[in-house]
Design brief:
This is Deoxyguanosinetriphosphate triphosphohydrolase-like protein. By secondary structure, the protein is mostly helical. It has 18 helices and no strands. It is globular.
Length: 386
Amino acid sequence: MMLAPYASDPARSRGREFPMENGLARGERSPYQRDRDRIIHSIAFRRLRYKTQVFVAPDGDHYRVRLTHSLEVAQIARVIARILGLDEDLTEGLALAHDIGHPPFGHAGEEALDAALHKAGGFDHNANTLRTLMRIDSPYPHHDGLNLTWETLEGLAKHNGPVANPSWALRELNAAYDLELGTHASLEAQVAALSDDIAYDNHDIDDGLRAGFLDLDELLAHPFIAANWGEVERRYPDISRERQLAELLRSQIGTMVNDLIAESQKRLVGVESVEEVRAAGRPLIAFSAEMEEGERAFKRFMYEKLYYHPEQLETAKRARAVLAELYAAYSQEPVLMDESWIDTLPRTEPERSRHIADYIAGMTDRFAITCHENIYGRTPAGLRNV
């Protein structure tokens, strides 16, 4: 497939932080294909299987976790990239890796680690994604990290736009390998970012209904949903409600994807290079103003009804306590950590505290619960609410 002139061309990649190990070339793959494959084969990516998406350590097999969410984002992102003439492999790699930096228990876990590191610069999951891929997950003999291309690292750092005030983690990494934080990222990164929104806007509906946290009548009456729901009822009046809802979610995703493509194509008229994309001063991958307004209103609805549901808030409170207590235990008794982490524990601050947070951030939900039980002799009640 021919790439559009504004796409990230793998033949023009800026390369990697470290020279390719031993000059080996395993198979005929582009640099971005190699990045995607390295991400998929990484330990950090596998751990997403047991990390919170909406619900903490869900018992049910049908709820989404970070891994399934990332796969869904990648599927949506590749479709958009193909239609716009972008590099699909770079887009897919960014979508697969975008949540690798999340600690156990999702945003509740992030809040706990941020509080624990308040004297050591805090914690940010986006920066931790880069820290994990560039320094922590290190399967290669000659360098730390996965040694991904500049374009993949740039996209992960700036997928939400230029970074004016980077956290300590991103600041350190950028000093070692300049990702030009003041500019916009590639179109592939912008596609991955909005594909994330499309995926969780719609798939969280499915999980929220399954858990009984969303009221179906309230949901279907919301202006962002109502038009597509009316069309589904009109076209499929005789199928079960369960199948109607599945069709609704497909329709919602399609509507958002089509709107994104149409608006982005308008913005890309006259753009002739990836350099122009970075210097544009605004995102070039975007929803229409009408869709953006509706999507923001729907997000407010989802926060009120699902993410800030009283039961969810109680669960988040317990999850924060688990990580706070783990951090306290490892700070007082580092020998409780895995041996390899004990051996590399820095003696000075803030490096010591950050090392302990790195260890906890890499845990899955269930491993964090197990570690807490081993240390404190109890399993926190109410951590699983579905």
